[in-house]
Design a protein that fits this description.
Order of helices and strands: HHH
Strand content: under 5%
Number of helices: 3
Shape: elongated
Distance between the termini: 30 Å
Number of strands: 0
Length: 96
Amino acid sequence: MESELPDHMEELVDLQWAYDAAHDIVKRLQEELAGVEQWTDEQQVAWRDAWEDWREVGEPLQDMLEHYAETLGLDVDELRAQVEREAGHDPQPAGT
């Protein structure tokens, strides 16, 4: 069954890249708006849209990870780590 994984890895990695890019936008906005006491309507819309974009990528990514892990008999956290490595993430030390 694990032979099916490479067929889907590209799709999972593409979703991970989209998730990372959306998350980077949320983090950038968070940093920009951290010291602002009262957000403008435009800032609120920008934050909401960025957060929604991030969530809209995150949910399908999580669903696909769970689906493939279950289908292929893999641990979802191990599959997630594999996808993150393939997407260029630095490995996390154990216990973080």
